[in-house]
């Protein structure tokens, strides 16, 4: 089968990264407290301005993209999926990565370097425009993805009409459910679910 795998929130725990770094940053620099801890987007968590949001990521983006480790079990699960004969396509809307300029090239380099350092193997990587809501759906159609693993409800609902989606559980997607959507709480469960789907087909 063709398996699509997201990076931020699936191969990494971006919510945990933000939980560790954002509160002291916004408190110290902008005197802002957490407004709502559950959303995916920092802007919603702190009800901050675009300028404040950019200031946070200007300070922490390089640290996140280079030093944040892969989720526990991701490396072994992805390798086992490849051993089982599945095709692995990393499909990401990582900020800047789709751009055709020096910033885009740098981000694509950082993504590939991070994947190699963390032992995550793949057959193909596709970088989607993060300004287009359903850009992952178009990629999944083009690549004939059978199962997509994602954490962002917007992406999950966009892809579910055309492929099975495994929703990687986080606090910000607990309400995400529907036809073709199955929830996994860790990478062992992701592997088991994909194996079940493969056996059914």
Question: Which labels suit this protein?
Answer:
201 residues; alpha/beta; Rossmann fold; 6-stranded parallel sheet; 13% strand
CATH topology of the largest domain: Rossmann fold
What's the structural domain tally?
A: 2
Mean pLDDT: 95
Major sheet details: 6 strands, parallel
Physical arrangement of strands within the biggest beta sheet: 3-2-1-4-5-6
Strand percentage: 5-15%
State the secondary-structure class.
alpha/beta
Globular, elongated, flat, extended or rod-shaped: what is the shape? globular
Low-confidence residue ranges:
none
Number of helices: 8
What does this structure look like?
This protein is α/β, with parallel strands linked by helices and 201 residues long. It folds into two domains: 2-13 and 69-200, 3-Layer(aba) Sandwich (Rossmann fold); 14-67, no CATH class. The chain has eight helices and six strands. It has helices spanning 14-30, 42-46, 50-67, 74-83, 102-117, 135-142, 153-159, 187-200, and strands at residues 2-5, 87-92, 124-127, 147-150, 164-168, 181-184. The chain has a six-stranded parallel sheet, sandwiched between helices. Strand 4, helix 7 (153-159) and strand 5 form a beta-alpha-beta unit. The longest helix is centred in the first third of the chain and has 18 residues, at 50-67. The protein is globular and about 55 Å long. It starts with a strand and ends with a helix.
């Amino acid at each position: 089968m063709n398996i699509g795998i997201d990076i931020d929130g699936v191969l990494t725990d971006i919510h945990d990264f933000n939980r560790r770094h954002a509160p002291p940053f916004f408190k110290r620099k902008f005197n802002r407290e957490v407004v709502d801890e559950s959303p995916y987007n920092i802007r919603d968590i702190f009800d901050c301005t675009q300028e404040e949001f950019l200031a946070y990521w200007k300070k922490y983006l390089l640290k996140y993209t280079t030093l944040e480790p892969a989720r526990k079990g991701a490396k072994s699960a992805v390798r086992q999926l490849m051993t089982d004969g599945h095709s692995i396509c990393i499909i990401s809307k990582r900020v800047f990565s789709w751009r055709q300029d020096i910033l885009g090239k740098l981000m694509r380099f950082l993504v590939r370097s991070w994947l190699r350092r963390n032992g995550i193997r793949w057959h193909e990587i596709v970088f989607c425009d993060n300004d287009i809501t359903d850009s992952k759906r178009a990629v999944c159609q083009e690549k004939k993805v059978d199962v997509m693993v994602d954490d962002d409800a917007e992406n999950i609902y966009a892809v579910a009409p055309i492929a099975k989606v495994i929703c990687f559980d986080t606090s910000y997607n607990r309400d995400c459910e529907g036809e073709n959507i199955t929830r996994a709480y860790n990478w062992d469960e992701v592997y088991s679910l994909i194996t079940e789907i493969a056996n059914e087909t």
